[in-house]
Amino acid sequence: MTDTAHELRRQRLTGIGLMCGAVAAFACLDCMAKYLGTHMPVSQVVGVRYASAFLIALMFSNPLNRPGLLRTGRPVLQLGRSVLLLGSTVFNFMAFRYLQLDEALSILFSTPFLVAILAGPILGEWVGWRRWTAIMVGFVGVLVVVRPGLGGLQWAALLSLGSAFCYAGYSIMTRGFQPGPSSSTWME
Questions:
Q1: C-alpha dist (Å) from residue 162 to 85, 97, 129
Q2: Claim: this prediction has a pTM higher than 0.85
């Protein structure tokens, strides 16, 4: 095995490990938010979540030793992304208060469907039939959990749907930061 192939393999394994760690961390975050949301105001839970994330990011990034790290060329876009991510978190944590964890997260899994719908008109990245098929299979799973028309939709499902819309907007705006053809002119 060449050094380049070995390095690529190592990077892939590192990426897989980081992704597994992130999924585990978000699962713990959701469980804690569900538990804490029944004992304290959602605004406090969200505040502690973001304060903790800020402190952890500060430990790893250390902007004092790296001047300019927190500077952005597009502050309005950055602020918009921040508001959408905050909205997604607030809606999600509020949904946890009223829905079971699996119901709330299953509805949140409609985000790829929403991103695929928005990516074409906003970013010019049109989704092909194979990806649409995979997205639709996942969306059918969301519909199975939500069970529309079979006993009524709980109003709190709208909170999870609001979270999904906010996160889809956040994802689209994040892609807009990428240089190249997919960064739309409205994001400039």
A1: 11, 15, 27
A2: no
